[in-house]
Design brief:
The chain is mainly α and about 130 residues long. Helix content is about 85%, strand content about 0%. It has one domain. Helix 1 crosses helix 2, helix 1 runs parallel beside helix 3 and helix 2 packs antiparallel against helix 3. The chain is globular and about 55 Å long. The N and C termini lie far apart (about 50 Å). Keywords: Cell inner membrane, Cell membrane, Ion channel, Ion transport, Membrane, Metal-binding, Sodium, Transmembrane, Transmembrane helix, Transport. It catalyses: fluoride(in) = fluoride(out). GO terms for molecular function: fluoride channel activity; metal ion binding. InterPro entries: FluC.
């Protein structure tokens, strides 16, 4: 059995390489003008794969903690953290916590983009 950190590291490296390769392929095929099709495609595929894995983890006893660490935390985490966001939001919805799910999803996007804008603007102003 591999150490949990090694499982995550290997999965993360493979997921990151897959994200880069697939995103580049999508961009070459679609040739986006104003829409980030590569990232969008990777995020949607990551959520689709996470949904498939969630069913497999529920239905198949062979899916153990090591497989979850490698696939969800490592592979899908390296492929897209959007898949983790999707899993957490779906978990809240499945528990009937709609207000929390909506708040989490909305605030994550809004505050995340605002935090990035704030950091970008601040650092750019300091360096100018």
């Amino acid at each position: 059995m591999l150490h949990p950190l090694l499982l995550v590291a290997i999965g993360g490296a493979l997921g990151s390489m897959a994200r880069y390769g697939l995103s580049a392929l999508i961009v070459r095929q679609v040739n986006p003008v104003d829409f980030p099709w590569g990232t969008f495609g990777v995020n949607i595929l990551g959520c689709l794969l996470a949904g498939i894995f969630l069913v497999a983890a529920e239905q198949l006893p062979a899916v153990n903690q090591e497989a979850r660490l490698f696939i969800v935390t490592g592979l899908l985490g390296g492929f897209t953290t959007f898949s983790a966001f999707g899993i957490e939001t779906l978990s809240l919805i499945r528990r009937g916590e709609m207000l929390i799910a909506f708040s989490y999803a909305s605030l994550s996007v809004i505050i995340g983009v605002c935090a990035m804008w704030l950091a970008y603007s601040t650092i750019k102003a300091i360096l100018s």
